[in-house]
Amino acid sequence: MPERLAEMLLDLWTPLIILWITLPPCIYMAPMNQSQVLMSGSPLELNRLTEEQRILNRSKRGWVWNQMFVLEEFSGPEPILVGRLHTDLDPGSKKIKYILSGDGAGTIFQINDVTGDIHAIKRLDREEKAEYTLTAQAVDWETNKPLEPPSEFIIKVQDINDNAPEFLNGPYHATVPEMSILGTSVTNVTATDADDPVYGNSAKLVYSILEGQPYFSIEPETAIIKTALPNMDREAKEEYLVVIQAKDMGGHSGGLSGTTTLTVTLTDVNDNPPKFAQSLYHFSVPEDVVLGTAIGRVKANDQDIGENAQSSYDIIDGDGTALFEITSDAQAQDGIIRLRKPLDFETKKSYTLKVEAANVHIDPRFSGRGPFKDTATVKIVVEDADEPPVFSSPTYLLEVHENAALNSVIGQVTARDPDITSSPIRFSIDRHTDLERQFNINADDGKITLATPLDRELSVWHNITIIATEIRNHSQISRVPVAIKVLDVNDNAPEFASEYEAFLCENGKPGQVIQTVSAMDKDDPKNGHYFLYSLLPEMVNNPNFTIKKNEDNSLSILAKHNGFNRQKQEVYLLPIVISDSGNPPLSSTSTLTIRVCGCSSDGVVQSCNVEAYVLPIGLSMGALIAILACIILLLVIVVLFVTLRRHKNEPLIIKDDEDVRENIIRYDDEGGGEEDTEAFDIATLQNPDGINGFLPRKDIKPDLQFMPRQGLAPVPNGVDVDEFINVRLHEADNDPTAPPYDSIQIYGYEGRGSVAGSLSSLESTTSDSDQNFDYLSDWGPRFKRLGELYSVGESDKET
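That's the Cadherin 8 sequence above. Prediction below.
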């Protein structure tokens, strides 16, 4: 208690001591009213003003300014006296007036202009404004004339403990790893106090924990929070709430305090091993499940979180390690068992696996807690399923010679039903892979036969697909690819590799190589091609050329002599027999064309025709081509002219490919009947080309030229119409080139003013045998003759 009392007294007297030390010599604290007086001179001069000083009237500075103090938050009934202004020029006659200006003058601070007393009329807050700068001046009361220059002074607001500490950044959050040792630093907090830190203990803070013990502790001065218990377990409790207090006045009684909260979260460490929820798992799977399908999932639980809970799964033992695999699901943290190889219920019906789950990230600090892994047993039962047929091989390779006979067996595929019931199998070819239907298959035994001839030179490989279908269940099918290779036989004779044309110089030397040729064979023998070259038997003793076989399987043609003359013979044909080495060997004869050419002295071919001999006058080939072109152009012009001329003179009666039409001339004069022979000229009905009695038909091209008999020459006038029609009818009937059909032309316009109506019989609803033309006689003398003609025609048909 004595120490505590001494400390309290020290806290109370320290501000007074500091204030007393800092007071300037010109400030005097009035003992009666605690006012402050600002006067000129020293303290001695303030109490003892000697006569000598008054007599000398020596000039002194008017003001010696320093600072005044006033307590904040003062709220008495009367304004608080801050201080008093006084000058040595004031004789006490009340002729001097004091004026105050500056910060808060008139609003916060008021001055008695007679006595110079300064009062604070409002409550002051140091935290809002710590000091005020004012200006004082003494003036003459009557004239307001300044007696001295103005001077500044400061009024400082003296602090009291009126602000509690505050945590500006609260509430706080912090983390600390679980299982941390005692005294592990968690975080630190900071509080602020608006009071004056240099005046007393108003801003001296001390920290403490109100809630959160015994788990955490705090340093009183630095506010560092630490763990107070070791090995706190996140799995037991993850989050803690700590209440922290900051108190001023050094934590003593009477001080103000503020609080904040700190939420401490324990972060996870890998201090727990994985553990399977059950020691035995059971799964079932059909035998026809697709490879890679998930069969089941196993899960090992881990109390840790995040990467500390990640586990890897493995199959460490069992009779199905080759058929199954297990993978880890990072999201669900479990193991997925999948099928690696096909299952067969008929072979094995169940499997047993031993799986292990182990932590991926192990913290060596906790390795002593035991192995961070666990094991479990998995039993998998295979269920029977109706499986499709199984071929004896996944692929088949067959070979067949290209000259194989039709319906011969190429090979065989086999398949079986793996089920216990063992259904019979039916085979077929997928015709999408054999569009040309070159192969067939026996539906019962799977033997593949040849349906159409093969040609290796067209296609070496044929890829087909064979389908096996269960007879009892047509939905169970299997497919297998079959590759058929066509083997070569010697069925193609060799021939020249290309079209060769050799050139022989007139000035060539005997034994000179004229041309080197090579042969090709579409066949493909195992040991490669080997060709034999020879001349025809009748040309073995060819006087002009000979042949020579080269090592590269080619042939060279050589000249036997020189002095070839293209004027005597320009081209030589040399038949060459080419034989292969097949069994049996095949041969063919190819002819090499050898052209005699004129060459330069160094053997360069210059001309291979008889141009020099044909054009002794020295015309060049270009000039000869130009002349020929001009001649051909002239011929074309003449032909076009003759063609156009003929086309212009051709009669426009009937074109070759058109139907036969009668030549009809329309006239308005009807005439006066048969008695009227002057009405029209019968010659207008005749074709000008038929003056001689012959008028060829133009609708077809006659194979025979019809020579009509010479008839009577037509006369311009007085011709009997009946006779004229009968003559033309007789010529048409005896014309073998005339088509056996009539040509009908319908005329829709019948003229004007006709009282008879239509004369056409084409629209009659009766047949020819039913028609009676006697009514024409009733139309008048003009139609009587026409009726007689039709009546005669009908009687002729009946006879």
